[in-house]
Backbone:
């Protein structure tokens, strides 16, 4: 049974445990990438996350509110397929546009941040492309998570959030010894985002 105290506890675990794991793995990433590349990677990651959140357009909160209200009434349940279908369509359009725009502006970002450093520019550009390709996955994750929250499946949301946090460090940790560069790490995170999106979809579907 979902209670406020239980939901708060699992939510704290969902945020806290991956953070602890991340702090442990940071020295490994810095060892393989070096301080400069590690700093660039975090900058690109921050940009990608905020860019994706912008293109989510806030429809996740609207969907959560609408689904919560409809789930509370017998007649409202008939509106659920319409709400969900429209939201998936909107997320697909928004995610595709966000992905394309991010990939288009990537060369300009690289030239601005790394003027005259051709080798690092190529590496950074490839990393930004991988981040761009993960934009739809981020938006779908937000969408399907909002469905779970509307159904008050907070324990599942926290569990997925914790699992995603671990995967966001574990998969790059497995990749970086073989691809010690920006785009290898970015590709690993892109894979993590798509795994998370399908994971949230599977839970929302069931």
Residues:
């Amino acid at each position: 049974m979902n209670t406020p105290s239980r939901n708060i506890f699992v939510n704290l675990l969902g945020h806290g445990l991956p953070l602890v794991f991340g702090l442990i793995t940071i020295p490994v990433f810095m060892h393989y990438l070096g301080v400069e590349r590690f700093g660039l990677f975090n900058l690109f990651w921050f940009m990608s996350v905020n860019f994706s959140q912008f293109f989510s357009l806030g429809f996740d909160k609207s969907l959560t509110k609408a689904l919560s209200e409809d789930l509370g009434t017998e007649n409202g349940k008939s509106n659920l397929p319409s709400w969900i279908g429209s939201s998936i369509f909107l997320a697909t359009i928004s995610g595709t546009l966000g992905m394309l725009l991010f990939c288009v502006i990537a060369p300009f970002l690289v030239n601005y941040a790394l003027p005259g450093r051709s080798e690092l520019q190529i590496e950074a550009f490839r990393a930004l492309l991988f981040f761009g390709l993960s934009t739809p996955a981020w938006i779908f994750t937000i969408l399907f998570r909002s469905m779970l929250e509307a159904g008050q499946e907070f324990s599942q949301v926290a569990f997925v959030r914790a699992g995603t946090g671990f995967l966001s460090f574990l998969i790059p940790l497995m990749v970086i010894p073989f691809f010690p560069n920006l785009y290898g790490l970015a590709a690993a995170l892109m894979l993590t985002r798509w795994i998370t999106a399908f994971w949230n979809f599977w839970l929302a579907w069931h």
